[in-house]
Design brief:
- The chain has 273 residues and is of the alpha/beta class.
- It has one domain: Metallo-dependent phosphatases (Purple Acid Phosphatase, chain A, domain 2).
- Helix content is 30%, strand content 16%.
- It has a 5-stranded mixed sheet, covered by helices on one side.
- A hairpin with a 5-residue loop joins β6 and β7.
- The radius of gyration is 17 Å and the shape is globular.
- The relative contact order is 0.18.
């Protein structure tokens, strides 16, 4: 059995199918970890949702910011953005089943693979959080999304405040802070304060901020993440065991899979200009 981790699909269904064929992926024996953002911006968001949902237990996917945006539009009253490509999902006859499935996905997965303690979230892991604390906090949000509070939370999920985690946060501020760390984080300062404006490469860091993976941790957990296409799968200057997997397929780059035991990477080129 082989376990592969794959970066952000963002509606790149044709490339996803090609990558699975290149890997000779067999859902009866192999497994996938998907780093979130299955949907949006690309042309095949509905097909991506259906493809991954149909894989059943062979696929583990975490929620990304674009996945949560879809849920916020469909069930939280948020407006579509001009560049969104979510209309086909919202109009699909199996829409509610797919949305139920997506809303039940976790924000974090963790297993020992290839002898390494391996943890995946969409955006990374705050250096101030242990893996155990991160799993506990992710479970708080997951519990809200999976019960009758989900719609009310999705209505109030968006916002940049608070921009720093505190243990005494409660209510919507606590849930929003957890979501922002796990699905939106790129640059932080030494105290763990998040910057939400800079979204490009490492040279776009605001003064006093660094990529989250350049701050040391007290453990050697292997951190699998997507979200940051401008990194092109690299983490230069990293002081932690981090593996970036978003190689910008939707922007004309490639779609990349990482064998979580051997460490081998396999990519297929984007079909988008």
């Amino acid at each position: 059995m082989t376990t592969y981790a794959i970066g952000d699909l963002q509606g790149c269904h044709a490339e996803f199918v090609e990558l699975l064929e290149t890997l000779d992926f067999d859902p009866r024996n192999d497994r996938l970890w998907l780093a979130g953002d299955l949907v949006n911006r690309g042309p095949g968001s509905l097909d991506c949702l259906r493809e991954v949902e149909a894989l059943g237990d062979a696929a583990l996917t975490v929620l990304g910011n674009h996945d949560l945006h879809l849920l916020a539009v469909a069930r939280g009253g948020a407006a579509l953005n001009r560049k969104d490509t979510l209309d086909a999902i919202l109009a699909a006859p199996d829409r509610e089943r797919l949305l139920d499935w997506l809303q039940s996905r976790p924000l974090l997965v963790r297993e020992t693979l290839g002898g390494e303690d391996t943890l995946m979230t969409h955006a990374g892991l705050l250096p101030q959080w242990t893996p155990e604390l991160a799993a506990t906090l992710a479970a708080e949000v997951e519990a809200v999304l999976r019960d009758e509070r989900g719609g009310a939370f999705l209505e109030r999920m968006y916002g940049n405040a608070p921009d720093q985690w505190r243990d005494d946060l409660d209510g919507i501020d606590r849930l929003r802070a957890i979501v922002n760390v796990l699905t939106r984080m790129r640059f932080i300062d030494a105290q763990g304060r998040l910057d939400f404006a800079a979204k490009e490469g490492l040279d776009s860091a605001p003064a006093g901020f660094e990529p989250w993976f350049r701050y040391p941790r007290g453990d050697d957990v292997r951190l699998i993440f997507g979200h940051w296409a401008a990194l092109q799968g690299e983490t230069p200057g990293s002081r932690v065991n981090a593996c970036a997997l978003d190689t910008g397929c939707v922007w004309g780059g490639s779609l990349t899979a990482l064998d979580l035991v051997s460490g081998e990477r396999t990519s297929v080129p984007s079909r988008r200009r």
